[in-house]
Amino acid sequence: MNIQLKMPEKDIIIRQYNKSDIKTVVKIIKESYEDPLNISPRSKKEIEALLPEFVNFWIASIRGKVVGFLTAFDNKSKYSSPWFDKTKELASKYDWNSFLYIDTVAVITNARRKGVLSKLINKLIEKSKENYYIITFDTRATPPNKAIIQYANKKKFKKIKTFTAPNKIKYHIYILPLKNKMLKS
Q1: Which parts of 44-140 are beta strand (E)?
Q2: Helix (H, G, I), strand (E, B) or coil at 5
Q3: Yes or no: domain 9-177 corresponds to CATH 3.40.630.30
Q4: Which of the given ranges, 8-12, 41-45, 94-98, has the highest pLDDT on average?
Q5: Cα 47 to Cα 157: distance, rounded to the nearest angstrom
Q6: Are 160 and 174 contacting, i.e. CB atoms less than 8 angstroms apart?
């Protein structure tokens, strides 16, 4: 997926996914998650099975080429994973009656540090702030995903929990409050 990417941020288009994007999304996942410590990347079949559960599925493109995407579940989702289940547990503890969980966000290598991730997150916030209190995501703590941790800190996400998943890897859970709701301690 080699695209020459010297462009202003305004050239990044964010739109809803369509079924024809899924094959490209799988390629982006494979490129982005080559790390052997990560969970195996999702297949086309797995993504298609999750489509009814995603409440957000945004595609980033530049000059018609898909360069990134973001998927998210909400607190009503029937989806289950150690990471999402831990977020649901925290939601109960902190009395978040509505939250979004960023399941996957990935950007092709050549489009990183060009504003694609910010545009995807900003679209999610824009479309979600009326209906949700919190946006959450998790990221690997050991070894750390330094780029996403720096991004989270820059965008005012707060780390609220570190836990060890069944794969024996530590993860951080971050939140971004969308409404002025105090968190219980």
Answers
A1: 56-62, 65-74, 99-107, 134-140
A2: coil
A3: yes
A4: 94-98
A5: 27
A6: yes
